Amino acid sequence: MSKKNRVILVHGLHQATFIMRPLAKRLQAQGFETHQHSYRSMRDRLSTNSARLNTWLETNHNPEQPIVLIGHSLGGLIIRDFLANYPQWRIGRCVTLGTPHNGSICADYIWQLLPAIIGKSYEQALDGTVAPLPEGIELGVIAGDKAQGLGQPILSYHNRKLHKADSSLTDESLANDGTVYVSETILSNATDHITLPVTHTGMLVNREVAEQAIHFLDNGEFKR
Question: pTM for the full model?
Answer without folding.
Answer: 0.94
